[in-house]
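can u do me a favor
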């Protein structure tokens, strides 16, 4: 660094194999370079350019880095605004604007605050730290968050070029020329942006709606500015939108219609009509969500209207200083309604726009030097020691526990954990008479984070200190995972001569392969070979349930993403370039099948279908007071494990022996696949699984196929071969959770009792069978969820389609099956206008019960979980508070749901319930354990250590589990079905008990001896210190002919209450509170089990409310990465999240009376879905709509908003289905 500072500045060139990089030092030099190389992009944050190069194959032989060109990083204050260097990062821009907001009177900073609103929500902190202002403007994303605000605010750009010198360009409608193009020429350099101050009477606001609250590109984003004259007459108005066309768009005609009109309702109605005509999206527009986006253009304008109306009302009360507004328009009034102001009556606003209200109603201000803001925007207020803000912007108030604020600057007040944003904080009507109910449109969603509770039963005082069972022991590899030391497959150092395998995938959904031309690939540097179907020495397909799945396509492909061949090169980049150079010629085959409706019509199924019926459904429907039909469509879910599919195959070099290092939850299945494919016995293939970075069911069958192909490559070349998928490829190739269409007919009595139900499930299996028939089996086995329906029929079938093959996913069909049942129950409640939890209670199993397939069980613990949740949340008063909140808020609705789960644990195929273990004790007393379970984050190795600690009486620190290996424990079953600990725990226990018994003579001889002394003595006395353990497992079965059986060992029960607040205008929501009580028997490790509960719940929340796979009409998966596919983030965790393990529960069917917990709770994430549905139902009531209504899963903001049927969404014309090709399939 010192050298860099002292050395004279000079242009630097760096030249690589394919790219050169130049770093000039002056603006003159930069513009000269740009004029000589107009096609060479400038690289600042590389956040727009980088993804294009990485994912879209863009190649730029020359990259220009202007990071040393000073004028791009200058901030210059001008009389009416500020010039901000285009090279500054968005975080730096944020700091500049925050400083202006601090320094200037509020009326001058309208634009700055609107920009800050966008900047705080734009991307995430990491991106904002590097992405530049100029990059954002010039890359001209159609949904750029800054461009609409900069344009509405009348910003100007300073542009330099060699030919034109320095000039100013207005950032307005004319600047945006089309998709990602602006009027800047290829040789132009954007130097700085002028951001003006606002004048009295001028109001600027920005709004954005995105699929997720954080780190998500906006669906629609706006910047709006109005200048009002006397009588609040509109003198100028600029309305800009992003996300409604190929580029930032100005609603000029709508603005024109407002000119000269007083700011009021009458003006607004006309504006909506013009806006609907002006901002038109074709029904098949790129990005889809057409109705939603159009509805947002209206509802965001409404928000702007109210914001200005509210600001006007507040202005009319100044200078007395009664009220004022934060940048987000959140208004706070103290308990006495007195708010202190700064000199000149201007209220201080922190950089985050956070206002502080104390219980005494005295607002802290800057005058007394109480509030400090660091350059990082870290704010701390010390008066009365009330608030602290962390760098993450999370502010918590401890004294009186009153107030918390998030980075968005949103404030909320709590009272005994119940959030109340309205009671004291907001004036009931403005002087202009904007009713309180209407103001709910502009109130920020709550974000006050409460400390979560985690409750479990402690071990009894009499338990030995050394015995780790039942104690909340930390996950064994947590520190290594947190520090990055934990080793995954791709961390394995490359063996000598290692090659990388990159896969070539089909681009057609259904086609004959006419030829594969690999010549261009083979000519590329580093490319060595190609592996095709013809190269496979052994079995060329995997067989499952009577169907064959080709490892590499030979003559035909049946989905986009199917594996065709693999390219081997000496590095992963070269292999990928090679794969991109392979040309496959196809001839399309007619009529691919994509949706379940298509499949049903064409009878395209994977057999067998499954059916269970009990009672007389027809009679039950006939005798019911009411009969209702409905359906629920559930989308699929990407596994999104953090570690993508990874395998390394190393040939030993003799006797066709191979070591396979693989991220698999089923090492034996992988071993068999490799052996069969190579045509060698299983004893030549050893699979090693150290740990997996997540699996969730997605690393069983698909992994074995990838391992088999990689093994072929290793066999063919005689060299080690590594294959690690990129996120996008992984998402494309390896399938997901099955999307399901569930239809039902239900008969019920006036009192809510369900007399009969008929359910039909169609699962979209994709192009190969995989485990789909087993998934649909589990659907009909769980179609009762927790309800005793006397006459019940369920049918399920796996539909064969031309989409990538779907596979197992945590819950294995239960999350879909039970969600359909709950949808049915919710409909019954809506039809009867009764609270849904009452309908659930009326129908839940009671007393000793029998399932629809004849399995006996006692639902006592289900009821205990249910009642405990009710008690913990205080259900009655909470629902009452919800009702009154909904009455008081026109555009904001709260909803709640209490959902039960009864989940069957173990495999219904009895042979899969067996497990084996191998325990070695060394002379020093240390213990090495091998068992058949794979460690995929669920903590199975930690629990096994605890088992050993109890059985051998040693501290668990003396026990080690190195890996799961087919050489140590053969014929293991997959770690799945929530059965890993149950099965392997028993096997480990068996081995330990054998060892303990063998040591008995030694212990008897020396009862006071230590463990180490006994093991040493045992060796000297020639006692074997190594033992295998075995567990046969329960003989579960299901007789599908008779429709009865005992397919599970036992049930895990749970109940969950969730409450949400929904913004009916945008579909945004917050989960205010979630309380889970779950029966895990006597938990072996409460901290791991609670972690499983929390993780599964969040994954379920993602499934039911957030995660959306989208496919093109040609069957191509669009959502192939985190930008297009949103999994839950920290911002989605319920604000109050409480998990309790049911105390005093016993389970005679599993080790130490514990229960399996990996999967059951995922379904409880649906409580958020049903809470949203409850809130939507309250919103519909405002439009006079009652009764049952459809809401598909996931309940994304789009679906929730449209289901609310607000006047805005109802204004948007709906295109006739079938009259256009939608952007995405509804599979
Ligand atoms: C994960 C992620 C999330 C995102 N979320 C959002 C979001 O929510 N809202 C949003 O609005 N944006 C979002 N973005 C986009 C992001 O803001 C832009 O990519 C970023 O601002 C571009 O700046 P950069 O410095 O990285 O540009 P680079 O990638 O370095 O360059 C982009 C382009 O701009 C040109 N360029 C850059 N500076 C100049 C200049 N001074 N003069 C002339 N040409 C120039 C370059 O030649 C290049 O073609 C997101 C991006 C990512 C990766």
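np, heres the sequence
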């Amino acid at each position: 660094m010192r050298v860099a500072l002292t050395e004279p500045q000079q242009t630097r060139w760096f030249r690589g194999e394919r790219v050169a990089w130049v770093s000039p030092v002056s603006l003159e030099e930069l513009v000269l370079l740009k004029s000589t190389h107009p096609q060479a992009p400038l690289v600042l944050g590389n956040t727009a350019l980088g993804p294009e190069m990485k994912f879209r194959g863009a190649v730029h032989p020359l990259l220009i880095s202007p990071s040393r060109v000073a004028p791009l990083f200058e901030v210059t204050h001008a009389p009416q605004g500020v010039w901000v260097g285009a090279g500054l990062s968005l975080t730096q821009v944020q700091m500049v604007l925050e400083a202006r907001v601090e320094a200037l009177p509020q009326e001058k900073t309208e634009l700055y605050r609107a920009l800050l609103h966008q900047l705080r929500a734009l991307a995430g902190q990491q991106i904002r730290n590097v992405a530049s202002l100029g990059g954002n403007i010039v890359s001209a994303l159609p949904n750029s968050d800054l461009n609409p605000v900069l344009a509405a605010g009348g910003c100007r750009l300073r542009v330099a070029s060699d030919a034109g010198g320095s000039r100013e360009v207005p950032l307005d409608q004319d600047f945006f020329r089309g998709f990602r193009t602006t009027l800047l020429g290829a040789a132009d350099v954007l130097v700085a942006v002028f951001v003006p101050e606002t004048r009295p009477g001028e109001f600027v606001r920005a709004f954005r709606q995105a699929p997720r609250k954080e780190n998500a590109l906006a669906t629609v984003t706006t910047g709006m500015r109005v200048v009002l004259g006397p009588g609040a007459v509109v003198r100028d108005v600029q309305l800009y939108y992003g996300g409604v066309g190929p580029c930032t768009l100005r609603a000029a005609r709508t603005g024109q219609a407002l000119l000269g009109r007083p700011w009021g309702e009458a003006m607004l109605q006309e504006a909506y009509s013009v806006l609907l005509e002006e901002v038109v999206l074709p029904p098949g527009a790129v990005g889809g969500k057409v109705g939603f986006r159009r509805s947002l253009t209206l509802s965001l304008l409404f928000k702007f209207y109210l914001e200005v109306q509210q600001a006007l009302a507040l202005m009319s009360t100044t200078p007395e200083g009664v009220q004022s507004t934060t940048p987000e328009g959140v208004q706070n009034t103290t308990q006495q309604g007195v708010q202190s102001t700064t000199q000149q009556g201007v209220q201080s606003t922190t950089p985050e726009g956070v206002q502080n209200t104390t219980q005494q109603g005295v607002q802290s201000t800057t005058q007394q030097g109480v509030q400090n803001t660091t350059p990082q925007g870290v704010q701390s207020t010390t008066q009365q020691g009330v608030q602290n803000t962390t760098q993450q912007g999370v502010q918590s108030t401890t004294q009186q526990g009153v107030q918390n604020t998030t980075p968005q600057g949103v404030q909320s007040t709590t009272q005994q954990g119940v959030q109340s944003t309205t009671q004291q904080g907001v004036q009931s009507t403005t002087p202009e008479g904007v009713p309180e109910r209407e103001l709910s449109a502009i109130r920020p969603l709550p974000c006050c984070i409460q400390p979560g509770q985690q409750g479990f039963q402690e071990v009894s005082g009499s338990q030995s200190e050394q015995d780790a069972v039942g104690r909340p022991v930390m996950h064994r590899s947590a520190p290594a995972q947190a520090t990055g030391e934990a080793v995954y497959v791709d961390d394995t150092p490359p063996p000598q001569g290692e090659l990388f395998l990159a896969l070539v995938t089909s681009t057609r959904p259904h086609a004959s392969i006419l030829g594969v031309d690999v010549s261009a690939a083979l000519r590329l540097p580093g490319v060595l070979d190609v592996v095709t179907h013809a190269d496979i020495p052994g079995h060329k397909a995997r067989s499952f349930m009577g169907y064959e799945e080709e490892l590499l396509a030979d003559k035909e492909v049946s989905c986009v993403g199917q594996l065709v061949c693999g390219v081997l090169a000496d590095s992963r980049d070269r292999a990928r370039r090679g794969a991109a150079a392979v040309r496959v010629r196809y001839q399309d085959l007619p009529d691919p099948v994509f949706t379940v409706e298509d499949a049903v019509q064409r009878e395209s199924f994977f057999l067998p279908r499954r059916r269970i019926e009990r009672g007389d459904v027809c009679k039950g429907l006939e005798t019911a007071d009411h009969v209702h039909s409905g359906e629920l469509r559930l989308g699929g879910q990407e596994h999104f494990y953090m570690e993508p599919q990874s395998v390394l195959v190393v040939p030993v070099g003799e006797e066709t022996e191979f070591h396979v290092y693989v991220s698999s939850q089923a090492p034996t299945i992988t071993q068999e696949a490799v052996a069969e494919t190579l045509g060698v016995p299983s004893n030549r293939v050893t699979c090693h699984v150290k740990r997996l970075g997540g699996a969730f069911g997605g690393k069983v069958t698909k992994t074995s196929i990838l391992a088999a192909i990689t093994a072929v490559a290793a066999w063919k070349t005689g060299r080690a071969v590594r294959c690690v998928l990129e996120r996008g490829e992984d998402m494309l190739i390896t399938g997901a959770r099955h999307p399901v269409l569930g239809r039902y007919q239900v008969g019920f009595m006036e009192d809510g009792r369900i007399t009969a139900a008929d359910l039909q499930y169609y699962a979209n299996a994709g192009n190969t069978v995989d485990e789909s028939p087993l998934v649909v089996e589990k659907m009909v086995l769980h179609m009762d969820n927790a309800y005793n329906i006397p006459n019940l029929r369920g049918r399920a079938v796996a539909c064969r389609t031309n989409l990538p093959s779907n596979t197992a996913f945590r819950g294995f069909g239960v999350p879909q099956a039970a969600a359909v049942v709950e949808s049915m129950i919710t409909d019954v409640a809506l039809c009867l206008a009764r609270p849904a939890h009452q309908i659930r209670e009326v129908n839940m199993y009671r007393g000793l019960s029998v399932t629809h397939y004849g399995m006996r069980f006692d639902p006592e613990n289900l009821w205990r979980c249910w009642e405990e949740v009710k008690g913990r949340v205080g259900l009655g008063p909470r629902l009452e508070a919800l009702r009154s909140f909904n009455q008081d808020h026109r555009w904001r609705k709260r909803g709640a749901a209490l959902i039960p789960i009864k989940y069957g644990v173990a495999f219904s195929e009895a042979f899969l319930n067996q497990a084996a273990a191998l325990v070695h004790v060394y002379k020093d007393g240390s213990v090495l354990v091998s068992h058949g379970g794979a460690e995929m984050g669920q903590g199975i190795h930690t629990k096994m250590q605890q088992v050993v600690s109890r059985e051998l009486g040693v501290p668990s620190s003396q026990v080690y589990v190195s890996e799961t290996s087919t050489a140590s424990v053969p014929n293991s079953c997959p770690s799945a079905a929530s059965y890993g600990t149950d099965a392997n725990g028993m096997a480990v226990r068996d081995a330990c008990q054998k060892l303990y018994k063998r040591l008995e003579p030694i212990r008897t001889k020396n009862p006071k001896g230590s463990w180490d002394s006994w093991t040493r003595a045992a060796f000297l006395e020639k006692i074997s210190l190594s033992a295998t353990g075995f567990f046969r497992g329960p003989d579960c079965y299901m007789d599908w002919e008779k429709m009865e059986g005992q397919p599970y060992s036992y049930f895990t029960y749970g109940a969950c209450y969730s409450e949400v607040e929904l913004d009916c205008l945008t579909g945004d929501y917050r989960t205010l509170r979630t309380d889970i009580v779950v029966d895990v028997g006597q938990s072996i490790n409460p901290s791991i089990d609670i972690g499983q509960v929390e993780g599964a719940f969040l994954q379920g929340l993602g499934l039911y409310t957030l995660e959306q796979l989208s496919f093109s009409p040609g069957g191509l998966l669009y959502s192939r990465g985190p930008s297009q596919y949103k999994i839950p983030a920290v911002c989605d965790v319920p604000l109050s999240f409480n998990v309790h393990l049911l105390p005093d529960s016993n389970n005679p069917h599993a080790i130490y009376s514990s229960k399996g917990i990996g999967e059951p709770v995922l379904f409880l994430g649906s409580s958020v879905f049903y809470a949203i549905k409850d809130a939507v139902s309250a919103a519909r009531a405002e439009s006079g709509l009652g009764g049952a209504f459809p809401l598909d899963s996931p309940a994304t903001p789009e679906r929730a908003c449209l289901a609310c049927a607000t006047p805005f969404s109802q204004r948007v014309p709906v295109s006739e289905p079938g009259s256009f090709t939608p952007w995405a399939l509804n599979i």
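Residues 318-431 have pLDDT under 50 and may be disordered. hope that helps!!
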